[in-house]
């Protein structure tokens, strides 16, 4: 099976007049189709850099990124990117915010419009499509941002700490919503986060990165035996959850001069 | 200033006695402020008139409200009031529109080509800090004594500051929003039309508010130096022939004009943000 995303020997450094800051060094891993992968690591381990490279906002200095076995440059529009904040534009209504991507790619056909209003309905936002973003709650805004990303029908979703701007309670429920939406649609997802429990509650596998420059420290597969796919909230109540949490915590602390 | 809570849903049955009391107190306070303003104005005029009538001040130099009123009436009757006001207003509006157009175009160009902005930065800073009245004699030699000179003077007063302000604002566009546009498959053109321009509307309007005042300053400076009509000409002319009534009347008309122009932009702001 060709992996959905394959990364080989990826390196990247930031340059300034003061000198060079290596952010990522020789990162390799793959994500299988339909898999939910989480990447965690201490702050400054190059998590966001990794996402920038993946969606083509920056060029890697070394290494290759393959999507379905093809170079990234050929399949850029198959990737959807969700940022930390929703960045809904206040001067646009919710409907016109979620259609922004289609508008930019000039494929806002009546059929696509129809699909959009169905998505808004499915995610409980159809009442709010003519409202301004400031009239929505944080959770609703994040769902609208997800619809804006999904409207372009990406195969691979990159999530850059998409819940970090929300308060704790909203965060848990939005995390539940979004992970079920992603799983129902059979999307492949890569979540970058610094929240260990969030990673354990949503992912199929977790990759732990080292501090700057980021390298792959460990890969931890998670399995939660059950007759159905558990939601993040249900996972938090399983006996396995705390076990995984502690092994991730230990992995993070291993050889770390700051915390050990 | 009127204190009016926007979008406040006020339904009769939802008002508690305490809220009613609060609202009544607020209303009373607002009335007191407006009444005091009018009283202060009337008191000032009355004192001025009395002082002139009882010769506490020399009414030939300081004029008086009644003389100014008569002067304005005479000027309105012979039409000269409207000619001079119209000339100044026309020049101000023309130079304002030019400043907005040129300022926006130049700021966008500098945003599109950051290297150009780096190269031109010292020139812009220098032109902005240069006292533009120093240029006026030069402009008269270059362009002659005409409306063209006055408009150029007014544009030069406001333009460079406007370019710098707009360009700085454009460069402060949230990089995350730019990132969003790129991640959705857009480029610099989409950043411009979907993020930069809509997000900059408040900046452009506040810039307009500054510019309308500066353009008026520029037009008056221009008229002081070279013109046959306009309020600036009227002020200089009447000071030279010691017609203080005309002079003060012109200043009052100028005050009213600047208020009307400013209100016009506030009206535009409300239209845009509604």
Description:
By secondary structure, chain A is of the alpha/beta class. Chain A has 9 helices and 10 strands. In chain A, strand 1 and strand 2 form a beta hairpin. In chain A, helix 5 runs parallel beside helix 6 and helix 7 packs across helix 9. The longest helix of chain A has 17 residues. The radius of gyration of chain A is 19 Å and the shape is globular. Chain B is built from 12 helices and no strands. The mean pLDDT of chain B is 89. In chain B, helix 4 packs parallel to helix 7 and helix 10 runs parallel beside helix 11. Chain B has a single domain, classed as MetI-like (MetI-like fold). Chain B has 274 residues and is an all-alpha fold. In chain B, 81% of the residues lie in helices and 0% in strands. The chains are: A alpha/beta (260), B mainly alpha (274). At the A-B interface, helix 3 of A face helix 8 and helix 9 of B.
- Compute the CA-based radius of gyration of chain A: 19 Å
Unreliable spans of chain B are: none
Q: Helix and strand string of chain B, N-terminal first? A: HHHHHHHHHHHH
Most residues in contact: chain pair: A-B, 20 and 17 residues
Strand order of the largest sheet of chain A: 6-7-8-3-9-10
Query: Helix proportion of residues of chain A, in percent?
Result: 25-40%
Mean pLDDT of chain B: 89
The CATH homologous superfamily of chain B is named MetI-like
Q: Which oligomerization state do the chains in this entry correspond to?
A: heterodimer
Radius of gyration of chain B: 25 Å
Q: State the distance separating the first and last CA atoms of chain A.
A: 40 Å
């Amino acid at each position: 099976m060709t992996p959905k995303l394959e990364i080989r020997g990826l390196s990247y450094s930031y340059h300034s007049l003061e000198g060079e800051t290596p952010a990522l060094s020789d990162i390799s891993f793959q994500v299988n189709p339909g898999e939910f992968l989480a990447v965690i690591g201490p702050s400054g381990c190059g998590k966001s850099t990794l996402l920038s490279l993946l969606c083509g906002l920056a060029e890697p200095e070394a290494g290759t990124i393959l999507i379905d076995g093809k170079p990234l440059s050929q399949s850029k529009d198959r990737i959807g990117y969700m940022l930390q904040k929703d960045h809904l534009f206040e001067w646009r209504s919710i409907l016109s915010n979620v259609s922004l991507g289609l508008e930019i790619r000039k494929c806002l056909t009546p059929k696509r419009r129809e699909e959009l209003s169905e998505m808004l309905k499915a995610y409980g936002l159809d009442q709010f499509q003519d409202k301004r973003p400031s009239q929505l709650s944080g959770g609703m805004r994040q769902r609208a941002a997800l619809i804006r990303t999904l409207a372009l029908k990406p195969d691979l979703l990159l999530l850059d700490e998409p819940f970090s701007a929300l308060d704790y309670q909203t965060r848990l429920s939005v995390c539940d919503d979004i992970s079920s939406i992603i799983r129902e649609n059979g999307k492949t997802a890569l979540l970058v986060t610094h929240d260990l429990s969030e990673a354990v509650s949503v992912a199929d596998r977790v990759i732990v990165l080292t501090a700057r420059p980021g390298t792959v420290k460990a890969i931890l597969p998670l399995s939660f035996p059950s007759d159905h796919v558990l939601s993040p909230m249900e996972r938090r109540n399983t006996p396995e959850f705390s076990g995984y949490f502690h092994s991730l915590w230990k992995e993070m602390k291993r050889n770390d001069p700051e915390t050990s | 200033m009127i204190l009016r809570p926007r979008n406040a849903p006020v339904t009769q049955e939802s008002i508690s006695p305490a809220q009613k009391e609060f609202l009544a107190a607020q209303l009373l306070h607002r009335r007191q402020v407006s009444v005091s303003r009018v009283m202060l104005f009337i008191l000032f005029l009355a004192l001025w008139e009395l002082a002139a009538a009882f010769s506490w001040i020399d009414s030939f130099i300081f004029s008086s409200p009644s003389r100014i009123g008569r002067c304005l009436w005479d000027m309105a009757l012979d039409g000269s009031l409207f000619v001079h006001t119209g000339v100044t207003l026309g020049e101000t509006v023309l130079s304002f529109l030019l400043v907005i157009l040129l300022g926006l175009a130049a700021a966008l160009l500098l945003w599109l080509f950051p290297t150009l902005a780096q190269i031109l930065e010292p020139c812009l800073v220098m032109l902005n800090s240069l006292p533009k009245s120093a240029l006026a004699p030069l402009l008269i030699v270059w362009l002659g004594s005409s409306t063209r000179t006055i408009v150029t003077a007014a544009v030069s007063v406001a333009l460079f500051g406007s370019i710098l302000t707009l360009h700085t604002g454009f460069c402060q566009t949230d990089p995350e929003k730019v990132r969003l546009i790129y991640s959705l498959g857009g480029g610099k053109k989409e950043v411009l039309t979907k993020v930069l321009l809509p997000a900059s509307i408040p900046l452009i309007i506040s810039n307009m508010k500054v510019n309308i005042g500066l353009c008026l300053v520029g037009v008056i400076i221009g008229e002081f130096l070279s013109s046959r009509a306009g309020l600036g000409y009227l002020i200089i002319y009447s000071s030279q022939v010691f017609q203080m009534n005309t002079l003060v009347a012109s200043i009052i008309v100028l005050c009213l004009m600047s208020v009307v122009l400013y209100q016009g932009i506030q009206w535009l702001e409300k239209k845009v943000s509604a």
